[in-house]
Design a protein that fits this description.
The complex is a heterotrimer of chains A (303), B (320) and C (436). Chain A has 303 residues and is mainly alpha-helical. Chain A contains 14 helices and no strands. Chain A has two domains: 49 residues, no CATH class; 221 residues, MetI-like fold (Orthogonal Bundle), CATH 1.10.3720.10. Helix content of chain C is 50%, strand content 12%. The chains are: A mainly alpha (303), B mainly alpha (320), C alpha/beta (436). Chains A and B meet through helix 1, helix 2, helix 3, helix 5 and helix 6 of A and helix 1, helix 5, helix 6, helix 7 and helix 8 of B.
Amino acid sequence: MDTVADVMTRLEPNTRAAARGLSDLSIRNLFIIPTIAFLIVFNVFPLLYSLYTAFTDYRASTSAPANWIGLANFRDLLSDPFIWRNFTITAKYVIISVTGQVLVGFGLAMLLNRPIPLKGLITTLLLLPMMLSPAVVGLFWKLLYDPSFGIINYFLGLGKFEWLADPQVALYAVAIVDIWMWSPFVMLLSLAGLSAVPKHLYEAAEIDRAGPFYTFFRITLPLVAPILMIAIIFRTMEAFKTFDHAYILSTQPTTELIAIRLYKMAFLEWQTGMSSAFAYIVLIVVVAITNIYVKYLNKAKAR
Amino acid sequence: MAEVKTKGEVIFNRAAVIAVIVALVVMLTPIFWIAATAFKPRNLATTVPPTVFFEPTLSPFAKLFTKRSQLREPVEQEVYDNAAWWEKLIYDGGEQVVRNRKSGEVTSSGFGNRYMNSLIVSVISTLLAVSMGTITAYGFSRFRVPGEQDWLFFILSTRMLPPVVVAIPMFLMYRAVGLHDTHIGLIILYTAFNLSFAVWIMKGFIDEIPREYEEAALVDGYTRLQAFWKIVLPEALTGIAATAVFCFITAWNEYAFALMMTSKNAQTAPPYIPSQVGSGLSDWTVIASGAFLFLLPVAVFTFLLRNHLLRGMSFGAIRK
Amino acid sequence: MQRQLYRLMAGVAAIALSAPAAMSQELTIFWAEWDPANYLQELVNEYEAETGVTVTVETTPWQDFQTKAFTEFNARGSAYDMIVGDSQWLGAASEAGHYVDLTEFFNTHKLGEIMAPATVKYYAEYPGNSGKYWAVPAEGDAVGWSYRKDWFEDPAEMAAFKEKYGYDLAVPETWAQLIDIAEFFHRPDQNRYGIAIYTDNSYDGLIMGVENALFSYGGNLGDYSTYQVDGILNSDASIAGLEAYRKLYGFTPPGWSKTFFVENNQAITEGLAAMSMNYFAFFPALVNPATNPNAEVTGFFANPKGPNGDQFAALGGQGISIVSYSENQEEAFKFLEWFIKEETQKRWAELGGYTAHAATLESEEFRKATPYNEAFYQTMFMVKDFWAVPEYAELLTAANARIYPYIVGGEGTAKEVLDALTADWNETFKKYGRIQ
């Protein structure tokens, strides 16, 4: 059965409703094309350029010309055990961090989704961690984690517990900072989604004497799912790109995320060609993962 | 409509309030620490054990805006007495201000300019990203677009690459067209990478707005554009507010491109703040004061929008 | 009336247009953001007072310095006329044509004689022993040590030390003594630790720290002219040096896993450690009571000797080069001529810059000017540097990857580490055609 929207877009241009103003087709084009064009111009060139250099041995620090070396960069990277380790470390980090952000963020949104005094102020305050520059966050958390100067061990009475020096704990320490910083993001989107759930649905459930779990899993979650999925998609993509605070906090081999290795390759060693190849490998991985998420999202919306 | 709350509900509400307070403490303690450090004299910033109670001072802010160097010998009493209040604070910290020998002018640290640049670039790019994003989202949401899923995915993919990789080609491209170290250059860049976010978030919100509203309006004789302006936008205000906040934060705190694409004229604040290596120690107090000042506009902006962020949407109006 | 208006407009236009021509010349020097850059700004303000040429020292944080500089070079940008570049960049920058050849300038002004020999060798000359010069040594620097005089001179401590180790507690003259003293003062339950060393593996911190041990034990990083690494990097002497550094790590404060000049100075100002290594450039903060509550009791010494009497320190410091894409090269040369004058160098030292000018360095005045200048003077004649080849960054990355887990994580043995690193470096050199 056609939705009303389908009908609307098929209106003849000279029917009364569409007679005044622009036609739907031109509005659609006017609204969409500038954005697409803009993004193409500013993204396609760098992408193509990187794609080209990925197949060369170009180094941006010398004036030597770039030589075509085919798949050599890709082969070197995929057979390098250090690179594989970077991937596993990043995967672990993404899972810990995004899960943490969702749990904390959504949890906070559920807590705040009721009439409480000063809700606006509290919400703004809870958003503060996300507003700080990641580099500053990295610097200060390094201080906070320090066993001698930091307040974490001091206030929690943890003595000389080593957060960043212990190779095993360091990754969790970095993930905790990420969770702290970005849960507000998930919280805000979840709050917006939660407050859009029609009240009458809750009232109807109450009349039917539905328990809190039923209400949550059958009403709340499905309706918030689309926005929550979007939040998860973006946070996952960003988690893969994590660099600023992680680099400042720890340069242990056990916390070398992909973006850190990429930075070192591109700007410390100036292996421009190899780093472009690396970036494309990462891009393919992220595209694959995001594809899965987006399919989930569309399913959630269809429900 | 008075409701009688069950005992369970009352307890649950109380527990929720306590949980909120705990959350506030956990989330805000690091921020309090940064704010506190911004008002500490330098020697109290990294003490063992940490200093929690202290007498606040404005010296970090005085240091934030000036170029300084170590005092090689104690300053003469007369010079000290005649100095301005903020210069006295700097002398107390064992440093002196760098002055231009000819004009006697205090050499600025450049923080003020960078702050202004950040404001200009972030505000304009946010406006652009949010407006373009909203109308594009509407387009995708309401109209049939050939290859819609692919276009949306393409828009999303523009945010998948780490800036590191894109930095060099962008740098070369900008130099070639003369956009290097310009405000416009940064604005374009920030708009570009905030757009994908804006489109997706706004589409998420606009999808939730029932089309019946617009149809009712169209039947009443409004044009599509008027329906968009008068019906859809007000309903989508929550989404717009959230998007604006996130886009602003992203542009405001952006570091990598700000570093690469600018040098003298359009340099923004983020690369500057963490670098306060003064006199052989990281001057944590100056970093904190810079971070504090830098945090203010975002916090204020968000606070002003708080009601829009929490508004939510009202369904059911059409059924009545 | 109209004619008057036109005349007025023409006058204004003439003034507006002629203003740029009357504007003074401008030079931009690029450096990292730290105190010496501020001192340089003070110094060049005097150049402006003398000649009317405005010189601006533009800075960027240390961690971004290399990135920004080379990105600008590769874009052939003219934003910077001169740059105070790291000594390691000499190879990369000169081979890529980013630096102006200063050989003639050098020889005309006999800089090889008036600057300290080590600085000429490491800050200016590339390739090694080629007689080609690319920079004027500007800021000399090396790694030195600071220590808590009060802890060392406490009679109770001295007695306990003599009893345990059999010799007097004093400023260490050998690495063996350094290790003993670090062990002696390492008291975690009292929040006191033996020593603070560099462990930051994000760039060159850790390696610079290790160099102090390696070089003084008689080891080396390889032959800089033949690129041979086997038998030199993994010689017994080098291995012993690396092991000594690992021992020192055991006496550092907790959480000492990513430390560089900031943390190492904090170790002294916050009373954490008995001794701390750092570049001399960061010592002014330690003698300033406003920044170091322990300033009165902080002393300094040069890197101690190794078991065979070798004594070397890791080199830091930078030289000023002229960027080949600058549009003001003539003006830049004039500036350099002013910079190398003896009075300017003296003034540079007075303001806090670490002059490389030999005569100034040797003067009584300089050596007594601060508590650490004497140690600095001694050290500047026994410095050694890392590889200055264009691929130095890859060598550093490999070194960090191998050495860090050993020093901080205790993984593997010194021999395994250096053997593996030798293989890595050989591969890198083969890749760039330095060896077969």
